[in-house]
Amino acid sequence: MTESTRSREYAEYLIAHQESLKGKLFQLPYQSHLRLLRLGKTLDIGCGAGRNLRTLSRESVGVDHNVIMIESCRKRGMKAFTAAEWESKKAAHAGTFDSILFSHVAEHMTSGEFEMLLRSALPALKKGGRVVVICPQEAGYASDQTHVEFMDFEKIGRVLRNCDISLQTRYSFPFPRPVGKFFPYNEFVSIGSS
């Protein structure tokens, strides 16, 4: 995984963008989409500065390797832990989450690293719980220098299968798949169950 997503500069950029009026307005359809998924108590892996934690249920928990972003989440009343803190707490949370969310996380690592990350998170999932993976399409992938590997439906599906997660649905959001070649905010959404 690239070290740049751990940096202060990366955290400050994401926090400023997320807190700007433009950032808040732009996120409205994406947060509405997340609400419609009805994920219940969610473990948000790679939660960043808490953009999705604000929308998820109050019982949800965020985990990120960027200490500054976790501090930002906590200042705003969200339950969030650094990856190191989560390691010491995850046994107490075994089988307690309805869903695990990886939103704009997998593309920051190789598919092998993503598979290891998913495997390490799965003990927290309830039997029959859902795994949601959201990744940018071509234009979005090209827009961020911290991206490591392009994760399309096939790669995401392979990782889910390798982890014994049954794919329930996959779709392009908010626009049809071809739009992702030029619109940087089109996403691959894959949802599976344990």
Question: Can you offer a commentary on this structure?
Answer:
- With 194 residues, the chain is an alpha/beta fold.
- It has a single domain, classed as Rossmann fold (3-Layer(aba) Sandwich).
- Helix content is 36%, strand content 23%.
- The chain is built from 8 helices and 7 strands.
- A 7-stranded mixed beta sheet has the order 3-2-1-4-5-7-6, sandwiched between helices.
- It starts with 7 loop residues before the first helix and ends with a strand.
Short description:
With 194 residues, the protein is α/β, with parallel strands linked by helices.
What are its keywords?
globular; 23% strand; seven-stranded mixed β-sheet; 194 residues; alpha/beta; Rossmann fold; 7 strands
Compute the number of strand runs. Answer: 7
**What is the rounded distance between the termini?**
26 Å
Average pLDDT score = 94
Structural shape: globular
CATH architecture call = 3-Layer(aba) Sandwich
Query: Number of helical segments?
Result: 8
Query: Over all CA atoms, what is the radius of gyration?
Result: 15 Å
Q: Secondary-structure element order, as H and E?
A: HHHEEHEHEHEHHEE
Relevant CATH superfamily: Vaccinia Virus protein VP39
Which helices and strands occur, and which strands form pairs?
Layout lengths: L7 H12 L1 H6 L1 H9 L5 E4 L15 E4 L2 H9 L4 E3 H7 L7 E7 L7 H11 L3 E12 L1 H5 L10 H10 L3 E8 L13 E7 L1
Parallel strand pairs: 1-2, 1-4, 2-3, 4-5
Antiparallel strand pairs: 5-7, 6-7
Helix pairs in contact: 6-8
